[in-house]
């Protein structure tokens, strides 16, 4: 069983800043994480992937294409997979201008030229003043990513004997990746991500299996119902639906007993919590 549940702030509902405050700022950049903190997200959510030369960077997509100008800077290197680029090459990219173009209402000149952060840069910036909800993204592409991740987290005392508990939650769609992490450190709170394309159901067997290594599950909110949430809760699993950006959805999921939510708008979720 995963012992990490008790490491989390007891009974506290978690506002999880999805890719930072990605409704307002370029996702998974330092300003996005800064804004998430300012909007009182309890956790900074981020996806970790590995460069060709073995550095951990923070980015959602497997490809650099959508959230940087890689297509322009490296026209001959389609499909711009992170794993095919060195950190030095990735550091030449602009990870902010796409947002200004896509979301003119939230555009800021200061977003122009933002760099893709490494995990270490994010941790150095916020240190122990933030909590981190880290996803191993596409871990099958990056052999050894789990070990590297844990090493970085230990190096900065976010894990290990000198760490305050609950500073880090690790999530993945990959059970395999979570099992590797659980084996290296059974005290880390882990969350199994799930994606449903039809009304969600979880069998007792599945619940029992997840409970062997994880403290909770995160799933797309649009396929779950009250019975689903209550079944997981009754069995002692945390329930963190993603990605909830609308206040009515937030209220409904809260009433069903969700214990946290991923949102691009931490301010909206905090507002709903105040009046709930
Ligand atoms: O990590 C929770 C949620 O972020 C999963 O979806 O695609 O945004 O990583 P995604
Ligand atoms: Ca994620």
Write the layout of secondary structure elements.
Elements: E1 14-17, H1 30-38, E2 43-50, E3 56-58, H2 70-73, H3 87-90, H4 97-102, H5 119-126, E4 132-136, H6 145-155, E5 168-172, H7 175-184, E6 190-194, H8 204-211, E7 216-219, H9 226-234, E8 238-239, H10 247-256, E9 260-263, H11 266-275
Commentary on this structure:
The chain has one domain (4-61, 128-275): Phosphatidylinositol (PI) phosphodiesterase (TIM Barrel, Alpha-Beta Barrel). With 276 residues, it is an alpha/beta fold. The model has no long low-confidence stretch (mean pLDDT 96). It has helices at residues 30-38, 70-73, 87-90, 97-102, 119-126, 145-155, 175-184, 204-211, 226-234, 247-256, 266-275, and strands at 14-17, 43-50, 56-58, 132-136, 168-172, 190-194, 216-219, 238-239, 260-263. It is 32% helix and 14% strand. Strands 1, 2, 3, 4, 5, 6, 7, 8 and 9 form a nine-stranded mixed sheet that branches. The radius of gyration is 18 Å and the shape is globular. Strand 6, helix 8 and strand 7 (216-219) form a beta-alpha-beta unit.
Any descriptors?
276 residues; 14% strand; TIM Barrel; binds SN-glycerol-3-phosphate; binds calcium ion
Which structural class is indicated by helix and strand composition? Answer: alpha/beta
| Measured distance between first and last alpha carbons | 33 Å
Major beta-sheet overview: 9 strands, mixed
User: Compute the gyration radius: what is it?
Assistant: 18 Å
Low-confidence stretches: none
Number of helices: 11
The CATH architecture would be Alpha-Beta Barrel
Order of helices and strands: EHEEHHHHEHEHEHEHEHEH
CATH superfamily: Phosphatidylinositol (PI) phosphodiesterase
Number of strands: 9
Question: What compounds sit in this structure?
Answer: SN-glycerol-3-phosphate, calcium ion
What would you call the shape? globular
The total number of structural domains is 1
- The CATH top-level class label: Alpha Beta
